[in-house]
């Protein structure tokens, strides 16, 4: 029965992605599988490039090595980041610290405007097939403004899912600036991206 539900979900996702591609020629969906970490699968609307970087997170005891897959399409940046820690409790702590760090960066950018802007935030439950079901896993939606190249306020919309598989923590995010990919269409595309995530052994 469980296998039937997984197959049904995959079939529905394929139909949605096919429809979105037809309506948005700029989106070229393809499946990406990360090696290890439970075999995370994701559908990107563009060809992601893989980078390694190190970040300093306030309150974390040392630098974090981050694997990043990202690309740009349809006026948005599509990103998937992962961090491996040593212990499960560290993973749960990072699930809380990562969104706080991201929001802190958004707030810092908003304070650079002539008139500081607030960051509006909403969160919800995350469900990724095969993830470790910790309550700290959440989906966040932030809306704010940052300065454009001329220093003028530019609307910024960020959707980010934070979830884990064992001791590996992930952030999947869609960043949109200005009016690009706005409205219901933009929400549909972002939802298709997030709903594509699943762990396959």
Keywords for this entry:
single chain; 201 residues; seven-stranded antiparallel β-sheet; three-stranded antiparallel β-sheet; 29% helix
Order of helices and strands: HEEEEEHEEEEHE
Order of adjacent strands in the largest pleated sheet: 3-4-5-9-8-7-6
Instruction: Please estimate the helix content.
Output: 25-40%
Largest sheet: 7 strands, antiparallel
The count of β-strands is: 10
Over the alpha carbons, how many angstroms does the gyration radius reach?
17 Å
SSE layout and pairings?
Layout: H1 2-23, E1 30-33, E2 40-44, E3 49-55, E4 64-73, E5 76-84, H2 88-110, E6 120-125, E7 138-147, E8 153-165, E9 168-177, H3 183-195, E10 198-199
Antiparallel strand pairs: 1-2, 2-10, 3-4, 4-5, 5-9, 6-7, 7-8, 8-9
Helix pairs in contact: 1-3
How would you characterize the overall build of this protein?
- The protein is an alpha+beta fold and 201 residues long.
- The protein has 3 helices and 10 strands, in the order αβββββαββββαβ.
- The strands form 2 sheets. Strands 3-4-5-9-8-7-6 form a 7-stranded antiparallel sheet, with helices on one face. It has a 3-stranded antiparallel sheet with strand order 1-2-10.
- It is globular, with a radius of gyration of 17 Å.
- The relative contact order is 0.19.
């Amino acid at each position: 029965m469980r296998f039937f539900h997984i197959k049904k979900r995959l079939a529905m996702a394929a139909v949605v992605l096919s429809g979105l591609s037809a309506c948005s020629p700029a989106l070229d969906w393809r499946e990406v599988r990360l090696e290890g970490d439970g075999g995370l699968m994701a559908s990107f609307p563009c060809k992601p490039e893989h980078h390694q970087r190190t970040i300093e997170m306030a309150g974390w005891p040392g630098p974090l090595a981050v694997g990043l897959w990202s690309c740009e399409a349809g006026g948005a940046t599509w990103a998937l980041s992962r961090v491996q820690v040593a212990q499960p409790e560290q993973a749960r702590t990072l699930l809380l610290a990562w969104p706080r760090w991201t929001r802190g960066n958004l707030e810092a950018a908003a304070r650079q405007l002539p008139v500081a802007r607030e960051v509006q935030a909403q969160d919800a439950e995350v469900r990724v097939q095969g993830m470790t079901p910790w309550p700290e896993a959440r989906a966040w939606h932030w809306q704010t403004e940052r300065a454009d190249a001329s220093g003028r306020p530019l609307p910024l919309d960020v959707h980010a899912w934070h979830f884990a598989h064992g001791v590996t923590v992930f952030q999947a995010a869609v960043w949109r600036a200005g009016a690009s990919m706005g409205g219901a269409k933009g929400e549909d595309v972002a939802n298709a991206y997030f709903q594509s995530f699943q762990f396959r052994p």
